[in-house]
Design a protein that fits this description.
This protein is 10% helix and 30% strand. With 90 residues, the protein is mainly beta. The chain has one domain (3-89): Alpha-Beta Plaits, CATH 3.30.70. The strands form 3 sheets. A two-stranded antiparallel ribbon has the order 1-6. A two-stranded antiparallel sheet has the order 2-5. The chain has a two-stranded antiparallel sheet with strand order 3-4. β3 and β4 form a beta hairpin. The longest helix has 5 residues, at 64-68. The radius of gyration is 14 Å and the shape is globular. Bound molecules: iron/sulfur cluster (SF4) (2 copies). The site of one iron/sulfur cluster has 12 residues, from α2.
């Protein structure tokens, strides 16, 4: 059974303090820009000038961008306690 059938969204409490930051100076020359196609929340979008635009607010805390960015552009952490996304078993 797919995970989506096992869990339900419980809360989404957005922190004003970003838990992920992206140094976009690496992005225009990134050969794969894998973050654009792997982030399930579409937090990464193509930007004609900076290569990639990032916004953390919809992040699902899956950690994918931390893994696929092999240029060290992504500084990743979990949100502070009480913030971010929460799931419960359906
Ligand atoms: S994978 Fe990393 S370096 Fe490449 S575009 Fe995404 S954030 Fe930038
Ligand atoms: S942790 Fe997952 S959901 Fe959050 S920005 Fe990275 S890839 Fe997207």
């Amino acid at each position: 059974m797919a995970v989506v059938h096992l869990v339900s969204l419980d809360y989404y409490n957005i922190d004003r303090q970003p838990h992920i930051t992206v140094n976009s100076s690496f992005c225009p020359t990134c050969p794969h820009q894998a973050c654009l196609v792997t982030c399930p929340a579409e937090c990464y979008t193509k930007d004609p000038e900076r290569g990639v635009q990032f916004s953390y607010e919809a992040c699902l805390e899956c950690g994918t961008c931390r893994v696929v960015c092999d240029r060290g552009a992504v500084t990743w952490d979990y949100p502070r306690g009480g913030f971010g996304v929460g799931f419960r078993l359906a």
